[in-house]
Each structure stands twice: as C-alpha cells, then as structure tokens.
Amino acid sequence: MVRLAVLGAGAVGRSVIDLAGEYGHSVTAVADSESAAVDPDGLDAERLLDRKASEGLVGPDDPEAALSAAYDVLVEATPTTLGDAEPGFTHAKRTLEADRHVVLANKGPVAERYGELRDLESESAGSVRFEATVGGAIPALSTLEDLGAGHVTAVRGVLNGTANFILTRMAAEGLDYEHVLAEAQDLGVAEADPSFDVNGTDAALKCVIVANVLGGRFSLADAEVSGIEGIPGSALELAAEDGRTVRLIGEATRESVRVGPRLVPENGTLAVTGTRNIVQIETTHAGRLNISGRGAGGPETASAVLADVGRLTR
Question: Do 22 and 65 fall into the same domain?
C-alpha cells in the first residue's frame, strides 16, 4: 500500500482522496489552503470530504503538517500559478529533497520551472511525474514516454474543453461568442472568470509541458498564444460553407509552442465536439497517432494522478 499526501482539496484533490482506496493506496495527509488532516494509519476519506463540504476545512492541523507527515508520494493538486509557480514548486522541491516521489496535477512547476524541477529530481532518490497536467484522463505524456521523445516530431491538438464547447455551440447553433460563454458559465463548463481558458493560456501551458518533454526548454513566455474571444459567429458560418470549422489548436515541437484558432476540416480528426480533447502525435516510425477523451474533471484527472502513482511504485 502506497501512502499519499494530497495538497489541494479542489475537484482533483478531492477525487484523488475519494478514489485512492480503489487503487489500493492510503491517504495519510491532506491539506487545503487553511488546514490539514494527518493520520499515519490512513484518513477516513468519507469523513474528511464531508468535513470539507460542511466546514470548508479538511482538518484541525496547520497545512504545514501535511508536508511533514509520513508518506511515500506527494500529490500536488493546488491551483496552477504562473511565473514562479509557487507554492507548487516549493512543495515539489521539499519532497524531492526528502528523497520522496511527487505527482503533479498542478501545471505551474512543469510549465514554468521545468529545468529546475528535473535538476532536483536528478539529485533525489524520488521521481516526479505529471501525466495529469496535460489532457486530463488522456494518457498523452505516458504515450510520448513509451514512444521515446526522440521519435516524436510534433504534437498538436485540442486541449481546452471550455474553449472547445464554446466553438462547438457557436458553429452548431449560429450563436455569438458572448451568448455561448454565458450559457457555458450557467452549465458550469466555464468559470466565472473564463480568461485562462478562452485566451489560450491553459492550452499553452499544456503545450509548453509537451514541448519540454520533447526536449525543449520553454516557459509560457516563450509561447505564441491567441484565444477565441474575438471570433465572430460569421467566421464559423463562412468556414462551414467550405466544409470546415474553427478549433483552438495547440502545437508543440522541440523548437516552438503555438496556440490559436485554426481552420480544420468539419469532419476531420481535430474537430472534436463539446468538452472533449484530442492529442495528435506525429512520429518518425509509427505515423500519426490520435488519442481522444475527457480532458478535464475531478475523477478523470484523478485517474491520471493515480496512474502515475502506480507507475512510480511498480
């Protein structure tokens, strides 16, 4: 049984706590931004999640107690931050310096401080994995690892479900951007502040991570990014007349990262609908590979986190 410490009690963190037992793991520490719960014999997931829902806290302790607890793998599921990627980077750093493993759902450390993270890993008996940072449940990074980064020439795809939902609805119903954005917010598909998704930042972070895995050394500042806010409904109508549609496409190679609206064939592989994601991998020997699925969501992303835990401990 692997002992997990989970930092972050948002949708992903809560789902990891809820599902860990199904994967044969024990959660010995949990922290949110204001509190922590620690039990070396394993926390009661149902009781902890009920307390979080009713009181807004996971336990009686200070968050620092979770990092000092007994665990084998740290699951870093705090919100993604840009620039210095804190506090996620320091959480990973302290864990690796203690010769323990880190699994990241937080994109910040891998997108913004990848070189430093790998340097820390090289000096540690622990390892760092981050499947959950790209494409939710889609095994994009493990597929790149299995293929060998040197045998992959490019990766592109639809990597943000909110933007894709908006573009799909605009095309299907002939609606304008603002109308569909309001609908997406009502449905919970878009955040109250959707800028991270619709301006291309979220997709760009994922592409930066992919480019780094391929051998580049990028941060968000190196990416060429444009979003979907300025796309009029008429552009989608014109595209449809030509058998095409618009999707927010991210592209990553060892040399560059680009994200922006692109015309794609209406019935083509990249024209996934709704909140689905797709990752398209160009390889030197296996041709083009496509992996599609749910790119976000608590249980979906938690499945990628727990798959990484399994890889670390096999």
Answer: yes
